[in-house]
User: Fold this.
Amino acid sequence: MPKKNIVVVGTQWGDEGKGKVIDWLTDRVGCVVRFQGGHNAGHTLVINGKKTILRLIPSGILREGVPCVIGNGVVLSPVALTQEIEELESTGVDVKSQLVVSASCSVILPSHIALDQARERAKGKNAIGTTGRGIGPTYEDKVARRGIHVCDLLDKDRFWSKLEPLVEYHNFLLTNYYNEEPVSAKESFDEINKAFEKFGSLVADSASVIEAVKNKGESILFEGAQGTFLDIDLGTYPYVTSSNTTAGAASVGTGMGPLNIESVLGITKAYTTRVGAGPFVTELHDETGMRLAEKGNEFGSVTGRPRRCGWFDALILRRSARMNSLSGLCLTKLDVLDGFDTVKICVAYKLNGETFTEMPMDSDLLEQCEPVYEEMPGWDVTAGIQNIDNLPEAAKNYLVRVEELVGVPISLLSTGPGRTEIAVLNDPFSEETAVNAAGEI
Ligand code: IMP
Assistant:
């Protein structure tokens, strides 16, 4: 029996290349579901040389006929969703025949965005570096049980009765605490109602939609956004996003019980990047860092901000493997390391003269850690390689070492942005014992 349902998560700080891999896996599944985050995510897909960036809509949307569900764990901006639907429709994608929006998603209001940006401004040099999309304040209101759900938008009176006091509360904070301009509740109401006209017909009890796919015997792909160390509970707090980005969230963010998840694929960049503030032990502030950024085109797909770059960190990956129950890795952007004389892997941290092989969870401690590197010979070209046997020996050795240090086999290797630039080492849906990159069990 092949494994059926699979969660795809980013194992580092996001931007590992999940969009491409999800699109690739979508061929084999009955539906794709987003379970957390919002339009702070940016999933880039390159198909026949054409680039599409998805922020909110699941990355399965570019495979015709595959239902794509925005699950209840997602915070949804009606305006951003409408824009994204229109952008996709203008390129000929029949979004409405595929997309389902959970009635239980929390709604992002203009005043959430205003609060997010006001807080960042007020924090000054201690800012988190959020995407400024209102994600944090919307999750706060959800947890405080005063948030607005998509189902509230179905009834205008109900929506207004919840919106008005909430915007009044936001405005109290904006004007009295942050010294900022208030937001108009009426304009917010009109803007959201207008956007809702575009996708209101797609709203459903999404857990039942997913259940129906499962009952047909088809696979479900749970699409994570951001990355493990941006998880509100398990990440480098407070430099995190406001949702749970790890595999466990796939269950609560969709309404599918945890026993429905049989496989967890960890998307892992062959080096490390991070956007926004927070500890990053292997960050490179030199020419090598710039070379990674340029070659890897490391600029935020949503914000355009340059990403911080550094070598592969085996300590964070090991912790990620444990926290997500990773069954396999998909190593991405190996080609960005092409042409280096040597490549480095961080195998330990030094702190106050002591050496550790376990990543500390305390961000202040992590900030002070120094990397201990292992240096390996580099290789010429891996770009575009689709068969592991054609990899240069040194690249293969790099993969084997990553597997050894992380303790998880590599299932997939991505060697370029295109849909076909991928090598399969172990089928993520297979029950068979995985082999390592050297072909050994
Ligand atoms: P927020 O999610 O906008 O609240 O931002 C919180 C932190 O998460 C910031 O450091 C952002 O840069 C980071 N972040 C949010 N979404 C993404 C993403 O999709 N990729 C990488 N970093 C992200």
Q: What stands out?
A: The first strand starts at residue 6 and ends at 10.
